[in-house]
Amino acid sequence: MNLFSINDLIATAPALVLVTGAILILLLQIVLPKFRLQAAYGVAIAVTAAAILLLVTGIPTSWQAAGATVQILPPIGTPVPLTEAFNRHVLFSGFVSEFSLLILIALLLLLLNSRRLLAELDLNLVEAYLMMLFSAAGLLYFIAAQDLITLFVALELSSLPLFVLAGWDRHSKSSNEAGIKYFLLSVLATTFLLLGIAFLYGASEGRTNLNELFYSLSRQPQSVRFAPFLFGILGWIFIYAAIAFKTALVPFHGWVADVYEGSITFVTSFMASLIKIAAVAVFFKLVMNTPENHRAIVQPVLMVFAVGSMFYGNLTALVQTNLKRMFAFSSIAHAGYMATLFIFPVGSALLAEIQKEASAALFFYVAGYAATTILVFTVIAFLETGDGEKRRITLEDLKGLGKRNPLAAFLLSLGALSFAGIPPLVGFFGKLYILRVLLGSGQYILALFVAINSLLAVYYYARIVFHCYWDYETEGEKLTGSALRSPAAWISGMALAVTVIGLGLVSSPVLRYALDAMVRFR
Amino acid sequence: MNNLQNIHHSMPIVSQVPILYVIGLVLILFSIGLIGVLSRRNVIVIFMSVEMMLNSVNLLFIAFARLYGDLGGEVMVFFVMAVAAAEAAIGLALVIALHRNYKTVDMAEVAELKQ
């Protein structure tokens, strides 16, 4: 037990920069009432960029308090010693900093679009930027949390602003509904998380630190008659359920379609990218910290999550006509693909090696998924707002879009093809690496399920491309949508398109880089 | 330190409820809350049920904290209460916004998004 020092603040600097930015936005409202919108937008982008810079370059050693152990922020891309802060409540490893970087970059790309998209809907209020910054800061702590208490508080810090954002369009009935549904089900998931934490606390004689928990639980006899072991099993199941809710995995997917459709599309892309990145990373970390004797019993639950999500998501998306709903179900299916990486053979001698490979494949898949999701939802948002008022986009509306709005049609098709897993794009390589890990660890049935689902999914993604370019027969008013007129939105759109095309081409160096960085993460 | 321990040992133990009884009570309370969430339609009542689930978890934390003589569980209860208060503030604001548009807080009638 050491006292609080400046090193703790240094270690969590990126999250603190975001929080500082959020508070600054509040202050600027009073100081510069005339320019507060521009100021809020500028500050939000500036602090996000600063946080990325801090994460990539690290912090000079000279800033640290004397007599400390290694407390510098781990620089990206190198095998790093673990950095602990706040009495081991927060722990930075290569795994954590890689995913933190992903979250910050996604936040930056979203923020670049935000001003134009929110202004089109007449919802451009200062508080939107505030909420996004707080939520992202919460996600950074969520990923880095090494103690279940911190995990819980960080999850709430990221969720509470999101309830507000989900119901952001307060005059629209559908946005109200999305907000209240997301709120009620999220709070329900929180109670599950807490019950899980309480059971683990009881199972391990009063421990909440993930590392201590691991060593305490792994010494237990594997027998359900032994009460603490039973508590441990219950604890893991409840915690997995809560995080599966955030990841949108199958038995806990009930909110996804309604909330994704009802919220304004900009917020939907925030939920589908940032929240999912963080939830998947934390889920993986929790699975890593589940000792072998417990995992042997809990593993089937993960299997249900993964296989159920893949099949349910893809089969339901097949029959959707509303574009946002279709992508909501497809996001469930993608969560399922990611969840296959949480399953390791029990009792394997090569467990550490498999876990390392799985973490790198997960990082690559999540990076590609986030880029594609933001691209697709951004295009949908611009299509929705083009005619002055918000409208729902169906597949019918897309007919002939390739002629009327070539840029939007191209970007949307690019996203759809990447999701479908067409070779030069990033989605293909993501699936390839998942299959390689699954086959390498001998889980052939799971690999077969992933392959079947990839084939199923091609149908509804290809339909989007087909409607855009080959099917011009349409009746009723024609959808054109706005071009990506603002420069910031254009930059963000192009950056995403380049990522979706380019990340696939440089996939093997990226994967090796991720592998190097993720040497240790327990 | 020794003196403190002596004082502690000389205090009469008022009651020592076995931990399994407490866990049984917690699971009963938690289930009642869960059934409330799943079966009720009024948003306010659903929210009350969730609060009940949260408090049943608090009870479990305190029971384990007492069993192991560890303060962590009791600290956790304060965190849960603080977060629950923040959640209530945001939740009730959402309910007010909902009521302005729908003129009801009945979840069965809040169904714009069903296809």
Question: Can you describe this structure in just a few lines?
Answer:
The complex is a heterodimer of chains A (522) and B (115). By secondary structure, chain A is mostly helical.
Please explain how this structure is put together:
The complex is a heterodimer of chains A (522) and B (115). Chain A contains 20 helices and 2 strands. Chain A is mostly helical and 522 residues long. In chain A, a hairpin with a 4-residue loop joins strand 1 and strand 2. Chain A is globular and about 65 Å long. Residues 67-72 of chain A have low confidence and may be disordered. Chain B has one domain (18-114): Helix Hairpins (Orthogonal Bundle). The termini of chain B are far apart. Chain A binds chain B through residues 149, 152-153, 156, 160, 163-164, 167, 170-174, 176-180, 183-184, 187-188, 190-191, 194-195, 197-199, 201-202, 205-208, 227, 257-258, 261-262, 322, 325, and chain B through 19-20, 30, 33-34, 37, 43, 46-47, 50, 53-54, 57, 60-61, 63-65, 67-70, 72-73, 75-76, 79-80, 83, 86-87, 90-91, 93-95, 97-98, 100-102, 107, 110-115.
